[in-house]
Design a protein that fits this description.
The protein is mainly α. The chain has 15 helices and two strands. The protein has a two-stranded antiparallel sheet. Bound molecules: magnesium ion. The site of magnesium ion has 6 residues, from helix 2 and helix 13.
């Protein structure tokens, strides 16, 4: 009997892995689309929080560059495994050349140089040298496909998380943030479902901090994130602010929906923080915790101008393909 228990626990855990990965993928896209209309705005007052997919610069439910670039990572990985940086940067560059309505400044500068024929290694380094303190969230927002595919191989997860950042974002904080987020997501995918989700997340954060050296300041910021007051969160495009806000949002909620409402109503970089929070909360709570009304509204086109439309069911298929890689 004593030997049977761990096995049945393992079986139970295994059954939840596909749901956690689907939750992670659809959750990330939901957060992007829910945050889209709130991006660059002030934090919403607590008495008028946005809880619905509404129209912004784009129609209600539209995903943005966060999801488009993540789709490039996912499709590159599904075509070339392990991740091939040259293939990935080619996909980013093709996307960039179609003039996406959203593209980060740092990403745009690097892809512009690559478009002119510069090697990505040189372009990425050059733009970082021009602004050594630039450490935006442009590589963090597209990192989640690596966790969906590599949750059972942490060595590969770390190597590919680093590489997918380096092609545009070489700052140590950017690279480490991608590794940290994906370690947290992988840990959550395998979480013990008998534990409260918030306890699992706290444990995943501690486990992940022990595997990546963020540096004292960054680490302290993440450790303090859950006890921050809402007014203290700047939620800028700085990668540290994005992770801080996402951990605050996920840890100060009891459901997928509440986590995302917390995140996107911070305004500012609402879509990216929504996306990162959605990946975390989706992995914590699973696909069935994502509100149907949000899933029903999700849509977008990728590659740009290809006519290929993506809906929630397509992201569920993508999640299954990534986990079967
Ligand atoms: Mg965006």
């Amino acid at each position: 009997m004593e030997q049977a228990l761990p096995e049945s626990c393992d079986n139970f855990r295994m059954q939840n892995i596909p749901s956690a990965i689907q939750g992670l993928v659809v959750g990330a896209v939901c957060g992007d689309a829910l945050g889209m209309p709130l991006e660059f705005g002030a934090p919403r007052p607590l008495n008028s929080l946005c809880r619905e997919m509404i129209r912004g610069r784009l129609p209600a439910g539209s995903f943005t560059d966060d999801t488009e670039m993540a789709l490039a990572v996912a499709q590159s990985l599904l075509t070339h495994s392990p991740l091939d940086a040259q293939d990935l940067v080619q996909r980013f560059t093709t996307w960039y050349q179609f003039h996406p309505p959203d593209v980060g400044i740092h990403t745009s500068k690097v892809l512009n140089l690559v478009s002119q024929g510069m090697r990505w290694q040189d372009a990425s380094l050059r733009i970082q040298q021009d602004d050594p303190n630039s450490a935006g969230n442009g590589s963090l927002m597209r990192a989640w496909p690596i966790a969906a595919a590599r949750h059972a191989d942490l060595g590969l997860l770390i190597a590919e998380s680093r590489l997918q950042s380096q092609v545009t974002h070489t700052h140590a904080d950017c690279i480490n943030a991608c590794v940290f987020l994906n370690l947290v997501l992988a840990d959550l995918i395998h979480r013990d479902q008998s534990k409260p989700p918030n306890l699992s997340l706290r444990e995943s954060i501690a486990n992940s901090l022990s595997k990546v050296s963020l540096g004292k300041e960054f680490e302290l910021m993440l450790e303090l994130a859950p006890v921050r007051q809402r007014e203290q969160l700047q939620n800028s495009g700085w990668v540290r602010h994005t992770l801080e806000a996402a951990l605050w949002a996920a840890l100060n909620s009891k459901s997928f929906e509440e986590a995302l409402v917390n995140a996107v109503n911070l305004g500012n970089d609402a879509d990216t923080t929504g996306s990162v929070t959605g990946a975390i909360a989706g992995a914590m709570y699973g696909i069935n915790a994502i509100p149907e009304r949000w899933k029903d509204a999700l849509h977008g086109e990728y590659p740009l101008h290809s006519g290929r439309l993506w809906f929630a069911k397509d992201f569920i298929q993508l999640a299954d393909a990534l986990q079967n890689l």
